[in-house]
Amino acid sequence: MPYHLEGRLLEVCDCRVLCPCWIGEDPDNGTCDTIVAYHFDRGQIDGIDVAGATIAIVARLPGNILKGDWRVAIYLDERATAEQEAALLRVYSGQAGGPVADIAKLVGEVVAVERVPIQFDVREGRGVLRIGDSQYAELEPYQGATGANTTLADTIFSTVPGAPVFVGKAPRYRSRQPALGIDLDLKDHNALQSTFVFDA
To answer: Does residue 199 form part of some domain?
Structure first.
């Protein structure tokens, strides 16, 4: 098996709550500026252990998420070893095939690959994401009448059947990526967090 990856993902963007992309509809603004971060709680790529690593993708989507042509910058946690970095880039560029290659084929251009400090402290839709000094998001889940966190199920991006997608908002979402033309400082926009399992 080339890879087995499992962990938590989160997505923040400049759509209002709830981001239409998760059900395959067009983004609120016609385009979408987003961060999608994957933290690996467990996993290996060709025998290389990547548990504890995080990879984040800052992207500008020109329209519907499923139509591709994304322009992206890729950020890797600076604590990753050179071996882990090479393995993760092999997977997230689509070279290793499998389900991640289905995501990678939506990318039209990679404008940068950087190693930076990454803080991924998110569970059940609540927490903080910090990527270097240019990307920051706080996450806060919505809650139902019983106090339980609001969730979605069976979305177009659900990777674990039956796993909840925690619906929330970002009280603060800051993103600067000059090569993508992104310079945002927003309050109370979309935030979603879920789990993933990728096997190839």
So the answer is: no
Residue 191 lies in a domain: no
Overall domain count for the chain:
1
pTM of the model: 0.94
User: Which regions of the chain are under pLDDT 50?
Assistant: none
Give the residue numbers spanning the domain of 70: 3-178
Does residue 89 have a cis peptide bond before it, meaning omega lies within 30 degrees of 0? Answer: no
Asked if 152 and 22 count as a contact pair (C-beta separation under 8 A), the reply is yes
Tell which residue, 1, 94, 95, 110, has the closest CA to residue 46: 1
